[in-house]
């Protein structure tokens, strides 16, 4: 499980950095073209937005790993141990199920858009590339939650301090 966690962390880190820096370069280039040369590249805004969305969804997956993704756990800390363990499990399984739903729905929609062969007017990219971020990043979220559930089942402390013996 550690190998999967480290490999996924490396993929997330590289993806976040490459996507963010590429979006930043496109944004800076577009601002320079607009204000210095009074011109621009029509597709730059669409590509900038697409790259930023991909990067931020990958960053959300990374936030799950680091225990800083949004979750409601303040009440869990005050429960007796058996109830706390059950609440922790629910707090891990519920977002896993939600991400699974988003993965499935995103996969269906991405396949539908792919079958239409539509090209995004803003980004000049196939629409399936734009919408493909949902199933891809939801898969990373699901892997993150599965890793956390595995660690929880072994009694390891979870990131953010909600496991037994922490917080």
List keywords for this structure.
mainly alpha
Describe it for me?
With 167 residues, the protein is mainly α. The protein has one domain (2-153). The protein is 72% helix and 0% strand. The chain contains five helices and no strands. The longest helix has 36 residues, at 81-116. The radius of gyration is 20 Å and the shape is elongated. Residues 163-167 have low confidence and may be disordered.
Report how far the terminal alpha carbons are from each other: 24 Å
What proportion of the residues form beta strands (DSSP E)?
under 5%
Count, helices: 5
Determine the fraction of residues in helical runs and give it as a percent range. Answer: over 70%
Helix and strand element order: HHHHH
Mean pLDDT value: 89
Major sheet summary line: none
Q: For the CA atoms, what is the radius of gyration?
A: 20 Å
Shape: elongated
Domain module count: 1
Low-confidence regions: 163-167
Oligomer: single chain
Secondary structure class reads mainly alpha
Number of strands: 0
How do the helices and strands line up, and which of them pair or pack?
Elements: H1 2-36, H2 44-66, H3 81-116, H4 127-131, H5 133-153
Helix pairs in contact: 1-2, 2-5, 3-5
């Amino acid at each position: 499980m550690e190998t999967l966690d480290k490999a996924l962390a490396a993929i997330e880190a590289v993806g976040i950095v490459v996507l963010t820096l590429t979006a930043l370069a496109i944004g800076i280039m577009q601002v320079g073209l607009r204000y210095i040369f009074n011109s621009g590249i029509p597709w730059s805004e669409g590509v900038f937005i697409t790259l930023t969305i991909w990067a931020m969804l990958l960053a959300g997956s990374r936030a799950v790993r680091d225990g800083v993704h949004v979750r409601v756990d303040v009440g869990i800390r005050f429960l007796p141990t058996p109830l706390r363990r059950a609440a922790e499990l629910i707090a891990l399984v519920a977002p896993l199920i939600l991400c699974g739903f988003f993965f499935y729905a995103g996969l269906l929609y991405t396949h539908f858009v792919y079958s239409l062969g539509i090209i995004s007017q803003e980004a000049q990219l196939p629409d399936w590339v734009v919408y493909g971020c949902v199933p891809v990043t939801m898969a990373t979220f699901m892997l993150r939650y599965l890793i956390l559930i595995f660690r929880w089942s072994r009694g390891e402390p979870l990131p953010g301090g909600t496991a037994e013996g922490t917080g």
